[in-house]
Amino acid sequence: MPLDPVHVDGIDSLARRIRDDYDDPDESGDVDQLWSFLDPLRDDGRAVLEPVGDLRRRAVSLQDIALIDDEFPSQHGVDAGTLNPRSFTNGLTVDVAHAAAASVPSDLDLHRRRTIVTAAQSPNHRVELPDDWLSFDDDATDGRVVQAPRDTDNPREAVHVFALYLSESTHLGKTLDAAEDLVYIDGPLYPLALLRWLGVDPAFGRTDLTGEILSNYFGTYDDALEDSTPVVGFVKNPSSSRVVSRLRETDAPPVPWSDDAGFFRYFLSTDANDLTFTNWFVSRLYTPPPPPKRPTTTTSPLSCTSTIRATEPSTAPRHRTASSATTRHARLSRDRRSRRSPSHACPVRSHAPTLSHASPPTSARVSSDVSRRLSTPSRRPTTTATGGATSGRRRG
């Protein structure tokens, strides 16, 4: 549907009305006070967002950081994606997820290894799908068909979520076996979409796939912690609003942003050609408050068992795949890792996600006057925000 020039001019006039009537947050001195509410951010007295060390904002020159040497000799990255879910006339809904990895320096054998998961959903109870791992491409690829919950009212979302996170969590474990220094994951460290659906559709919690996926992630991060291998989740388009939502429930000044990215972008804006970032935070915004303490003699054994099952490492497929090549690779990796001496501290904790807004390597020269430079946010809008980091460079 085309727009004529007169329509474009009309849209411009409407936009000008918004610009003229909307107050810039910079014009309100109360907004700057919001930053101090993160030290720490509380919910009924419980710290739900707590800085590691001092609450601070820092800056580093993009030119300087581009010229430093990497602190990690090797780096590995994991990514997974899906096709669009498809529904067929026979009632079957299917989605396919594909996970792969890459590394620096390049490793063609690593890049060849893949994990492919096909998730299918059918309300027909006569449909029974095989649920075992298969290997092909000379044992370089592991594949599996899984059955999404039959009783869900959201079949398209179910096949998408279970295919995506099972392939990603499985391949992440296999990639960690091959990594020695640093692992990136394209996306959050935890399967947030699955966790959100657990609160929307109870059927997502009635399948063993949920426990298997969560155990894959937690088991991998426990191994990373044991091996002192940092694992970094990189979110390109953050959409969380937990921080600003919690701020609105405190006695803080009015919060003008709809999501957390807008909040941090405002406080990290600068006119300089710098990469700006915050300290690390320990976040409990996605976890419920702990239950009231009970006497030891009355603690429910069932609750203790449930907690252990939710956090113990998964048995699939990095540990139980039918692929002889994968099994052999995992065994050799475990032997190699047992001889490895830790060289870096791992910031990953499965029980308390640690969040930061893009801390650069410590060898980068960090500006010493950033408190002064960032204490009054720039009124110029920042056009780039990547993974929570804000760059002062304006892109066309």
Q: How large is the radius of gyration?
A: 24 Å
What is the ordering of alpha helices and beta strands?
HEEEHEEEHEEEHEHHEHHEEHHEHEE
How much helicity do the residues have?
A: 25-40%
**Total number of beta strands:** 16
Morphology call = globular
What share of residues are in beta strands?
A: 15-25%
Number of helices: 11
Question: Largest beta sheet, briefly?
Answer: 8 strands, mixed
Ranges where pLDDT stays below 50 over 5 or more residues in a row are 297-356, 358-373, 375-396
By helix and strand content, what is the structural category?
Answer: alpha+beta
Mean pLDDT level: 78
N- and C-termini, Cα separation: 27 Å
Explain what this protein looks like in three dimensions.
This protein has 396 residues and is α+β, with helices and mostly antiparallel strands. It has a domain at 75-207 and 300-354. The protein has helices spanning 5-21, 62-66, 108-112, 155-178, 192-198, 208-227, 242-248, 260-267, 301-311, 324-338, 370-375; strands at residues 41-43, 46-51, 57-61, 75-82, 86-87, 93-104, 114-121, 134-136, 141-147, 183-186, 231-234, 274-278, 281-283, 354-355, 384-386, 389-391. Strands 4, 5, 6, 7, 8, 9, 10 and 11 form an eight-stranded mixed beta sheet that branches. A four-stranded antiparallel beta sheet has the order 1-2-13-14, covered by helices on one side. It has a four-stranded antiparallel beta sheet with strand order 3-12-16-15. Strand 15 and strand 16 (389-391) form a beta hairpin. Helix 4 runs parallel beside helix 6. The radius of gyration is 24 Å and the shape is globular. The protein starts with a helix and ends in a 5-residue tail after the last strand.
